Amino acid sequence: MSTQIKEDKSPSVLKAAWLIMVVTIVSKLIGFVRDIIIANYYGASLVSDAYYYAYQIPSLSLILLGGVGGPFHSATVAIFSKLIPSLKDKPSEEVNKLYSAFMTATIMFFLFLSALMYVFPRQIMGLIISSGSAEMINLAAMHLKIMTPLLVIGGIVGIYYGILIIYKQFMLPNLSPIIMSLAIIGVVVAVPSDQKGYALAWATTIGAVLQLIIQYPNIRKLGFKLKPNFAFTNNPHFREIGELLFPAILSSTVGQIHIYVDMFFTSSISEGAWTAIGYANRIFQFPVGILVTAFLVPLFPIFARLVGDKDYDGIRNYFNKGVGVLLFGAIPIIIGILVVGMDAVRLVFEHGEFDENATFMVTEALWFLSVSIIPYVFRDSITRVYYSFNDSATPFTVAFSSIVLKIFLNWLFISKLGYGIGGITLSTSLVTLFNACVLGYFITRKMNMDYKSLFINTCKMLIAGVVALGICYIASVQFDNYVHLAKVPFELFKILLIAIICLAVYIPLNLFFKMEYAKELFVRLSAKIQRK
Predict the structure, then answer these.
(1) In this structure, are 64 and 122 located in the same domain?
(2) CB 52 within 8 A of CB 59
């Protein structure tokens, strides 16, 4: 049976992964344009810091809880995919009642949180950025108040995402973030320069509302109808959702606590520091988010079904291959960040109010963050396996236990060693490594994952990566010494050259080492080229 499952699902997973990758690239590119425009108008300043400090709270709902891969999306996929036998039929009355109960509870929960956020914005921001100035806290509080609706919208959109992905409608959930980016771009460009203080907050709220609006028609078309349902106690499937969702929410909230810890320490560094860290994270997420989203979104429902069938060989096969392919793509990204990261930041952001100092702050944060890509990929992949077993308690416990580690590392790197912005992202990388290792170990209580082949292939990739890094670094130094052009063509040619050299060294070395995933990708690409 497991063989049949693999044969049936593999092509669809690859096709879905390529589709999601294309859509995600478009979304990330537009998001990148948004960040460039924000950087051009605001730089790394008091106003941008206030907005990004405030945005971390509603983003907990809109991105972490309600985004693709978040707890609401994951709980919806894990439970509803087992209750919908045929994707061609309308959902049954039982499924619709469960959907209504889930939506009702979600709206009630987030309305309560929204009320707290609207009434006590200054107290909330004062607690999080206590080292910031009174002006900073007041600005952040007003931004937070404007973005209150994002909390409710995030939970609803998360459920919508899960339903659409169950029905293999991968396009819309991954396209909808574009709406947010376009709203921000439009408002920031249109608003006069002397009125841009709260423009970002209003634009973000408008974008979130539009995200909700574009999802709704497809949900109705699939046959899901919302009728207030308060039957929370006598529905066993709702109890399953709660058992999966509650620890997952706590786990994501713990991740947000890590961010709040970073905000607390960053507020004592320098003006613009939090904005710089935010840009570094978004640059980091641009390639990494594309890879992880493209492969894990279609794989997660398969993990859930394989767990239901107790096909552990299938899980091991999909997990090792998925993580291996992700790591194969991730290592060149690390090389690029380390060698030409500053060139890329200078090329993209250094315009208008964004100066050389801001470029260095972003690059410093990015360098230390780049090394977290490998444990990040593994952690996010193994977490989906836990969720497939309806276990979100273990990821929560591991994430919660790392809060103390995060506080200690920030204190060590910032307060004692004076690493500045780099210390914040270095501690993030070490905490990510800790979480990945612990989660990878504890999954063995449920099944034997057989990491041997993954470990061997990863070692081959790392050896190839180290060689490619050394050659790329030498090429970068020589380019700086002998090539003299204007800023834009200089940075463009340098980044392009290093990318070509990196791939020209990295890919043949992996093929020489007979790295399994490189061979498979090479065979697939060769077959496609021959067919054309």
Answers:
(1) yes
(2) no
Asked if 186 contacts 203 with a C-beta cutoff of 8 angstroms, the reply is yes
Question: Distance (Å, rounded) from C-alpha 431 to C-alpha 408?
Answer: 11
Same domain, yes or no: 241 and 304: no
* Side-chain-facing half-sphere of 517: CA atoms under 13 Å: 22
Q: Which pair of structure tokens corresponds to residue 491?
A: 């940075």
Residues 62 and 208: beta-carbon distance below 8 Å: yes
Share of the chain residues as helix, strand and coil, in percent rounded to the nearest 5: 85, 0, 15
Instruction: Give the 3-state secondary structure of 111-159.
Output: HHHHHHHHHCHHHHHHHHCCCCCHHHHHHHHHHHHHCCCHHHHHHHHHH
The alpha helices in 267-410, defined as continuous H runs, are 273-308, 312-349, 356-370, 373-388, 393-410
Cβ atoms within 10 Å of 9's Cβ, excluding its own: 19
Q: How many domains does the chain have?
A: 2
| Both structure tokens of 462 | 């790392």
| pLDDT tens digit sequence for 9-46 | 444 555 565 666 677 777 777 877 887 888 777 776 77
All residues at 6 or more sequence positions from 183 whose CB lies less than 8 Å from its CB, including other chains: 203, 204, 206, 207, 210
d(CA 520, CA 355): 45
pLDDT in tens, 285-309: 777 777 676 666 666 667 777 777 7
Hey, what amino acid is at 269? I
Domain enclosing residue 81, as ranges: 46-253
Is the domain of 118 the same as that of 202?
Answer: yes
Cβ(54)–Cβ(143) under 8 Å? yes
Residue 62 and residue 205 in one domain: yes
335 and 247 within one domain: no
Choose among 294, 257, 326: nearest CA to 18.
294
Phi then psi dihedrals of residue 372, to 5 deg: -85, -5
CA-based nearest residue to 56, from 348, 297, 277: 277
Q: Which of 475, 464, 463, 465 is nearest to 501 (CA)?
A: 475
The answer to whether position 41 is within a domain reads: no
Q: What is the dihedral of CA 137, 139, 142, 148, to 10 degrees?
A: -80
Tell me the pTM: 0.64
Residue at token pair 């308690």: 393
Which of 312, 275, 265, 239 has its CA nearest to residue 2?
Answer: 312
Q: Cα–Cα distance between 200 and 180 in angstroms, integer? A: 11
